[in-house]
Amino acid sequence: MPVSQHRLPRSTADGCLSWRWWPKLSTREWTIATVFSIFIFIISPFSTWRSTTKIDTDSETDSVWVPFTPSSKAQENSALCLDGSVPGYHLSRGFGSGSDSWLIHIEGGGWCNDIPSCSYRKTTKLGSSTFMENQLEFLGILSNDPLQNPDFFNWNKVKVRYCDGSSFTSHPDNEFKNGTKLFFRGQLIWNTLMDEFLSIGMSQAKEALLTGCSAGGLATLLHCDDFRDLLAKDADVKCLVDAGFFPNEKDIAGNHAIESFYHDVVHLQGITKSLNHDCVSRSEPSKCFFPQEFLGNIKTPVFLVQPAYDFWQIENIFVPKSSDPLGSWRNCRQNILTCDSDQLKVLHGYRDSLLKTLGEFQQNQKGGMFINSCFVHCQTWGASTWHSPTSPRINNKTIAESVGDWYFRRAAAMQIDCPFPCNPTCVHKDFTLFT
């Protein structure tokens, strides 16, 4: 099977490869991990992903570079990034019939769960606007090209930058402990940015779509109903979640690694007040950071784009390095095409568990989903995976077409793929390039 080159996304934050959550490491391991992470961060704008079966179309389409806008209201509201810098966004104004329609896309990039990881994060673009790019290329669902983005190309589109490490839910109650200067202001950032968007035209929106990738997808779910309540009652408001459904699953060694990690994130950053109240009333608060615990409580229509073989989840939830001391999963974690039959059986089991968890959601008449069998993570902000001649398809529908069918009520949009490796349209990421 031929191997072709893919451009590394402009923001590695959305891919979550560089900024995955850190297990409890020794001092030496922390040093090694940090150096590697810095290396990936530095080279990211100039590097390429290696991908199998597909040709990258991002470089073949016209695109728009959009400047960074610091929030004008952040300082007065004390809504600050982890390091105390001012958060911001990139805004591309709508035109024509899309002038009164708004798409808000929340950047992803994992979370930090303790003082060392948050202290490191604030030295990167995921914790400080000081290190953010001056401009970003708008592709995929953010594109102004109707060929690449047929339903949303002329909408007002905002890329919200992520610099708090909590999916925009942290509160300052626990700041400045142990002599550190970390600003846990995620919820304040969210409130401030939404107020700013309302003041520059979003209050008049007749259509609106809140969306996000990875940790930004989780933020989309956590804030979905609040976003809907900001807008007029007759506005058509919905939420699109890209690779943001993180399941509460044990790893292959039987450990609750992700549950323990989320517990630390929630309690370190004072997140409980931002979680779904119905969920918190019946569960330990950190459990309510898992979408499966509160998805049924969301009243606003939701669409889930989720790869059943999500490489970030395989690497960090299902088969973290701590669960594989002998390294027998090393190649499989980096390239699903190298997995043996026993390993594939385990991964199929995770897919089955995901579909079972989403069983009730499949009956939601207002919901939609696109669950493909690709070894990938976020798929909505890249031209090659959102909508192009080589994009992944289910029932001959691209993700963009399925989302459009759902949002505009053109057709039912519960698309569920067959198990890997049945779908020849898949884009499978290959990370052996980095080893």
Account of the 3D structure:
With 435 residues, this protein is an alpha/beta fold. Helices cover 28% and strands 15% of the residues. It is built from 13 helices and 13 strands. The strands form two sheets. A ten-stranded mixed beta sheet has the order 6-3-4-7-5-8-9-10-11-12, sandwiched between helices. It has a three-stranded antiparallel beta sheet with strand order 1-2-13, with no helix packed on it. The relative contact order is 0.14.
- Shape category: globular
Indicate the mean pLDDT. 87
Strand order of the largest sheet: 6-3-4-7-5-8-9-10-11-12
Count of β-strands: 13
Helix count from the secondary structure assignment:
13
Which ranges are low-confidence, i.e. pLDDT below 50, for 5 or more consecutive residues?
A: 1-61
Largest sheet: 10 strands, mixed
Structural topology:
Layout lengths: L2 E5 L4 H4 L11 H17 L4 E5 L11 E7 L3 H4 L10 E5 L8 E6 L8 H7 L13 E4 L17 E5 L25 H14 L7 E7 L1 H16 L5 E7 L14 H12 L8 H6 L19 E4 L5 H8 L11 H5 L6 H17 L10 E4 L11 H4 L12 H9 L6 E3 L11 E3 L5
Parallel strand pairs: 5-7, 5-8, 8-9, 9-10, 10-11, 11-12
Antiparallel strand pairs: 1-2, 2-13, 3-4, 3-6, 4-7
